[in-house]
Amino acid sequence: MIAANIAAARYLDRSHVPTLYRVHGMPEEDRLETLRQFLREFGLWLPPAGEVTAQHLRDLLQKLGDRPDALLVSTAVIRSMPQAVYQPGNIGHFGLALEHYAHFTSPIRRYPDLVVHRGIRQVLKGGDPQELVAWHGPFPMLGQDCSFRERRADEATRGAVAWLKCYYMQDRIGEEFEGIVSGVVDFGLFVQLDGLQVDGLLHVSALGQDYFARDRSGFRMIGRSSGKAYRLGDRLRVRVANVSLDERRVDFELAGATDTPGRPRRPRQSGRRR
């Protein structure tokens, strides 16, 4: 599929036919530096931001192998990248390390595929390439519209998937799961459950009696008095405390925690009534 997309893009470029390329720019240096700091927490290396190439990132992902944090690291790498877009100006595809790329045989049959097909047909029949502009309108605007509709479709997909995950978890309130810390924010930790790809919030108030705050690195939550630290990539056992379908949110608490701040403690049931 990728080979066909490359061949189509090269063919249209050589033929000087207006079309929509699938382009992916170089990541911004500050995002690459943030990624470098993130990878250090996992003992992984990346060169300075100004020296990073697509090959470095490819080698990094290949080295992950069967590591338990492989999905977390690969997700962080993807999020450091700019979003690929459609545009008539070809700047290459950084993520795939390709000079020419277009969507010619996309499995989901996007509209840009049809634009590429029309361009190839126009060349094969010896037609005027400028007729394509008359059919589609200005290609820069067409690329912006296709990119916008793609983002909107992705957002709808993410919303639907998040709702389905919450629907699945609503019958598991009180159950315990193993997971990995996938995010550290000022108000708590995000934990991703093993094997389920379900992320939930472990609120800072559920971490214990200490005052917890995020440190300068942004990857740790440290208790002021105890020095207890929770860091990105740590493994935790959590209990499902609450699920909200409307907010598409799952709340966790530490498994085995007896006194959680902000939560009333339930009285224990004794074997005999006094």
Give a summary of the structure in a few sentences.
This protein has 274 residues and is α+β, with helices and mostly antiparallel strands. 35% of the residues lie in helices and 19% in strands. The protein has two domains: 2-163, no CATH class; 173-254, Nucleic acid-binding proteins (OB fold (Dihydrolipoamide Acetyltransferase, E2P)).
Bin the strand percentage: 15-25%
Mean pLDDT, all residues: 86
Report the span from N to C terminus: 74 Å
Helix and strand pattern = HEHHHEHHHEEEEEEEE
Shape category: elongated
Please report the number of helical segments: 7
Which ranges are low-confidence, i.e. pLDDT below 50, for 5 or more consecutive residues? 257-274
Helix content: 25-40%
Describe the strand arrangement of the main beta sheet, using strand numbers.
3-4-5-10-9
The main pleated sheet reads as:
5 strands, mixed, barrel
* Count of distinct strands: 10
Judged by helices, strands and strand pairing, the structural class is alpha+beta
Q: Give the total of domains.
A: 2
Task: Describe the fold and architecture.
The strands form 3 sheets. A 5-stranded mixed β-barrel has the order 3-4-5-10-9. A 3-stranded antiparallel sheet has the order 6-7-8, with no helix packed on it. It has 2 domains: 2-163, no CATH class; 173-254, Nucleic acid-binding proteins (OB fold (Dihydrolipoamide Acetyltransferase, E2P)). The protein is 35% helix and 19% strand. The chain has helices at 2-14, 29-40, 54-64, 70-79, 111-124, 131-136, 139-169; strands at 21-23, 85-87, 176-185, 188-193, 199-203, 212-214, 220-223, 229-231, 235-244, 249-254. A hairpin with a 5-residue loop joins β4 (188-193) and β5 (199-203). Residues 257-274 have low confidence and may be disordered. It has 274 residues and is an alpha+beta fold. The longest helix is centred in the middle third of the chain and has 31 residues, at 139-169.
